[in-house]
Amino acid sequence: MCLAVPGRVISIEGDDPLTRQGRVDFGGVIKSVNLAYVPEVKPEDYILVHVGFAITVLDPREAERVFEYLETLQQ
Amino acid sequence: MKYRDEYRTADAARGYANAIARITTRPWTLMEVCGGQTNAIMRFGIDQLLPKEISLIHGPGCPVCVTPIDYIDKALDIAGTPGVILCTFGDMLRVPGTKSDLAAARAGGADVRVVYSPLEALAVARDHPGNEVVFFAVGFETTAPANAMTVYQADREGLVNFSVLVSQVLVPPAICALLDRPGNRIHGFLAAGHVCTITGYAEYEPIARQHRVPIVVTGFEPLDILEGVYRCIHQLERGESIVENQYSRAVRRPGNQLAQQVMESVFQIVPRHWRGMGEITASGLGVSPAYQTFDAEARFGAVISQDESQGECTSGAVLRGETRPDQCPAFGTRCTPEHPLGVTMVSEEGACAAYYRYRRQVRRPVE
Amino acid sequence: MNEDSEQHCPLSSEGRELVKMAHGGGGRATARLLDSLFRPAFDNPWLERQHDGAVLDMPGAMAFTTDSFVVRPLFFPGSDIGAMAVHGTVNDIAMCGAEPQYLSAGFILEEGLPLATLRRVVDSMAAAARETGVRIVTGDLKVVERGKADGLYINTAGVGRVVANHPIEPGQVRPGDRLLLSGDIGRHGIAVMAAREKLDLQSAIESDCASIAPPVMALLNEGIAIRCLRDLTRGGLASALVEVAETAGLAARIQEADIPVREDISAVCELLGLDPLHVANEGRFMAVVAPEDVDRAIDILRRHSVSEAAVDIGLFLEGSAGLVTAQSVIGGSRVVDMLSGEQLPRIC
């Protein structure tokens, strides 16, 4: 359920919190995404996008954990 | 693509598979709740890397599959009303109602439009002030805030020709319903990561405690799923049952509170009928009284519940995780994606369709 | 968008003129359109004879094929319906192991189509035909009422001289034969979808629409033991492969990691929930060759720009007819199926 794809925020347009849009880069393809639900987002952040809405901002530090955890398992 | 390719590497996948094999001492059955995870498991062959003691069963996590036939019939009814434009996600087009589906209705002349985002449905309403525009809003908690936003904005803009037919469902009540069933054999859950980006996972903590079942909030890439399985087995082997968050790059414990607020103001919690599982208390969302004028049921009449007869189809048992798709006698012979007997074969994300696409061995349908 | 066509337009008013029912009536208006637009663009002795058909002198075996082209929008990044109508049929002839030579072109025009648009399509066909070395030697034109067609539809049929000295078809495929893919997949389908759907995508994705005859002729001329050729159009690599395996009565196995998919194509597929193996191409083909010829065949393919990224992606083997399995990037395996139903963006 719920296809959500990671993309990089290039720029943010609009002041209205409900309709704030971001230009988001998905592997070289750029699409407008509604940023209403991620008020904290800033350019260069990665977000997860579902049906045209950003649903969360990805945490780069936490993103490494799956590899670090595997390392601890292999020691 | 960053945050995708690095979670699909063969070496790390093998590393996790080995770690899982090392700690597994007896048979365990895990359910991945989300159809997206089912799809990833089949598409990448993740289950083939696991020791034979571990069975993965596929949960009811496909909003398309659990949408009751009454709602499809209502959508067909609305689409057939002169002057109506019905907008829906591509997933819903081939789901069979009692007599027809939306693809057939479109072929027959109904104005049925596929949208990628619910905001497109809103744009259609703006562009066609002379038509009634109805958005068929299905989904779990991941999609609910986006669907809620259309109503919120329509209200703000004073759009009078827009309404939503809502068949939204909630995951935690379904997990409880599965655990409460007699003969339940699920030892642990991989919870749906994208749902939890919105809801967080505090709500899962009492479920894990009361039912003594580990719940691991899990992402959708192969390494995410393998780590989710590892964490679940690790708990089971040690007799633990807590909620862990494997998908911490995307999910925080409180979830997305802003999204929750919009969702809670536009929608209210209602009892909901799930295909294959019957009615589950407080498991769905309906339009809240404050936004009643945007409820398509208020404009076009309420959805009428009907008896759900599945004939030969065993999708109810599949949705409850009681049988595997390939154990059904009709699977791949009398039931294929071209001639589906039930929803789990229709939806791209249904467990039967995923099995058919990625796992069957015999091709030729029996005529 | 019509600057080009307006410059060499013989009728000063053509830039604004629309197709009328009379243009398809077979009378003066039809004749004027043929004289001013089609004949000069396609320019060859057969059309100059202005006869009911073309008389061709073709000794030996020949391949014959036809295809119809309906695409919306008519012009999309990297190509258009005109170039597609030529390359599509040229490619089908090449897939029979034949050198494409002559085409026919049938047009169904919608009343109200700007003549400038038609000219642009016809010029694009003429350019594609010149580049491919085929002649458009006969044709037809009909006009239907406004609202009855998406601007225009084109049918082309074509013939070519068979170069292969052995049959090239699925029935020739044997266990152990290797499967070569001529390049990265999914560009055409995604380019058209991005131009059509209200997806609001900005991308550099262009259709791969091109003639694949040159590398095929080179394979044949250099004596590669080709068992079967198939161009990967609608339904994508997956559908073509399953079809060939079914007809051959064999199974096939491919390595997903070896199949080139550009990052932007793969990103759009993820966004819309599509499998790149199901997405349409217009300039890609697969070649099934004897195992001992693989290296040589790849060398030859890589000399041609249209197949410069050719790769070996798998093989055919004994097993259930049509059962195609792919080894995934993490080492599991899955069944590859034909596309079922239409491709729609989905949320889950």
Automatic annotation (TrEMBL), chain A:
Entry superkingdom: Bacteria
InterPro entries: Hydgase_assmbl_chp_CS, Hydrogenase_HupF/HypC
GO terms of biological process kind: protein maturation
UniProt cross-references to Pfam families, sorted A to Z: HupF_HypC
Molecular functions (GO terms): carbon dioxide binding; iron ion binding
Record-stated family: Belongs to the HupF/HypC family.
Alphabetized PANTHER family for the sequence: HYDROGENASE MATURATION FACTOR HYBG
Protein name as it appears in the record: Hydrogenase assembly protein HupF
Organism in which the protein naturally occurs: Marinobacter salinus
From TrEMBL, chain B:
Alphabetic keyword roster: Iron, Metal-binding
Example of a GO MF term: carbon monoxide binding
Any single biological process term in GO: protein maturation
Pfam families noted in UniProt: HypD (PF01924)
Coiled-coil portions: none
InterPro entries: Hyd_form_HypD, HypD_1, HypD_2_sf
Protein family membership: Belongs to the HypD family.
Entry-linked NCBIfam families: hypD (TIGR00075)
Name this polypeptide is given: Hydrogenase maturation factor
Organism: Marinobacter salinus
TrEMBL record, chain C:
Gene3D superfamilies: PurM-like C-terminal domain (3.90.650.10), PurM-like, N-terminal domain (3.30.1330.10)
Residue ranges constituting the PurM-like N-terminal domain according to the UniProt record: 51-162
Residues in PurM-like C-terminal domain copies: 174-314
Taxonomic superkingdom: Bacteria
Protein name: Hydrogenase expression/formation protein HypE
NCBIfam families per record: hypE
Family: Belongs to the HypE family.
One example of a Gene Ontology biological process annotation: protein maturation
Organism expressing this protein natively: Marinobacter salinus
